[in-house]
Specification:
By secondary structure, the chain is of the alpha/beta class. It has three domains: about 1-250 and about 455-465, Aldehyde Dehydrogenase, Chain A, domain 1 (3-Layer(aba) Sandwich), CATH 3.40.605.10; about 255-435, Aldehyde Dehydrogenase, Chain A, domain 2 (3-Layer(aba) Sandwich); about 475-520, no CATH class. The protein contains 17 helices and 19 strands. The protein has a seven-stranded mixed β-sheet with strand order 13-14-15-12-11-16-17, with helices on both faces. Helix 12 links the parallel strand 14 (about 360) and strand 15 (about 380-385). Helix 4 (about 95-120) runs parallel beside helix 5 (about 160-170). The protein starts with a strand and ends with a helix. It binds nicotinamide-adenine-dinucleotide. Nicotinamide-adenine-dinucleotide binds near residues 152, 180, 226 and 401.
Amino acid sequence: MSRMSTDPAETATAGTCRIVGVNPATGEDTGWSADTTRPEALSGIVAAARVAGTEFAKRDLDARKAVVRALGAALLARADAIGAVLHEELGKPLGEAWTSEIVTTGELFDHWLGAIDDLLAPIDVALNPLNYPGKQVWLELDAIGVVALIMPWNYPFNLPLRTIVPALLAGNAVVFKPSEHAPRTGALLAEVMNAVLPAGLVTTVQGDGRVGEALIAAHPDKVVFTGSLSAGRKVAVQAAQLLIPCSLELGSKDAAIILPDANLDRAVAGVVWGAFHNAGQDCASIERCYVHRSIYDTFVERVTTAARALRLGDDVGPLVNEAGLQKVHGQVQAARAAGATIHCGGAPTGAGYYYPPTVLTAVPADAAVLVEETFGPVLPILPYDTVEEAVAAANNTPFGLCGSVWGKDLARAEAVARQLRCGVIFVNNCCFTGPMGGAAWTGRGDSGYGVTGSRFGLEGLTVVRTVCVDRTGQKREMWWYPYNDSLVSMARGLVELGRDGASIAERVRGIPLALTGLLNRWK
Ligand code: NAD
């Protein structure tokens, strides 16, 4: 994490703040620091990005792919350094940093480099040759322009690349604002991108929400925002006022439903990982778990045992900062005060910003820990009697990012999962598809709108263009001036020829009408 300082002793440049690195595992300064970007500089940065993007878009797709391939290679060559920064800046256990951010990034590049030719290939529009002789019409995806990429801190390496890679392949420029809580990972990413990419193609700006606001005010062509619901609402309003298309990937309160026939070994291990990986600081963390009453006690006991066995630091990192810690603990304390039972965890350890994995039962339905995003290693487990009841409870939230259903009868589990109102559903798994270039990551309701990944994500980074090329060389079209009887005769003939349900006699009658019209018109 980091802290922002306006102390003149720490601030190097007038009008900026100094971001000072803090290790969340200890709460101590790391010695790393950087200046934030001056908000007034953003309009010049966006203008320069537009020039760089326009030039880059002129290169053919193979040339753009070569640049993106070189970027992927350069980033993965720094994998050790990236893992180390993720560990020091956010306290991520190294196993987590490598699997969730680095391995996935290699896959992300592979996916887009392999898929992009097909995804950007022109799409022919079928034309009726009688009505439109000699014409060719097709659709193509054009770069949208400058993409403003405003990012959170929880996956600060992989998450920006989920947009940067397809954006560049499509011929865009990007202005990237890392979170003020993960500036060092952002700076490392910027260092590699600056070394490999054409100047100005991806510009990294540092700072908090004020720099984010200034970036949108500088009028990029697209805003891609990932973050909290509260900031997302402000971003949506600002972008709407400027008529800038915007995608919002926001928070959630994802549910898991454990069916009575679930493979308990897998469901327990999966839910424990789903709730506690990244210290619960994942937009798709399992934050509510509904378990059939026939297996409820066993499930709670086994999850509690597994949660207690997790090692702080090695398996579960710290929360990002003091504010995150207080928010999580506040929800747990309020639930306890309202009668919830705490099976394990339930209080900060006192070391850095660690919060131990916490399992709750008997949580009142209106408790914040069941209603609001927790973003910490806290799992409320609730019993249900009928599947309808479980689905209704899971859907009783304004959020809708992911949901999972666990059961051995796959057809049954899939049918239940389809009833969840969310953008990504899992059967016997959870959370992990976000970094996949080929999968769509998208929410419903308060989890936002827009898509990351897949052809649908690419559509959000491009604009569709219809191209029409006429090869006839004729003097004029049938629908151009002059309007006269032969035009009407020809039109009537064409309709008779093509009309659904027309008899053979009617179609035959259409031929001379169309021909006479054509001859009279062009004789
Ligand atoms: P945040 O909203 O505090 O900040 C996100 C980014 O927005 C930061 O870069 C911040 O500086 C910037 N920002 C804040 N206010 C702004 C404004 N008014 N205008 C422009 N930019 C502004 O979120 P966070 O704490 O960094 O991230 C955690 C949140 O992100 C959680 O709610 C989590 O669920 C969500 N998240 C969602 C996804 C997803 O894919 N749906 C993925 C990761 C994180």
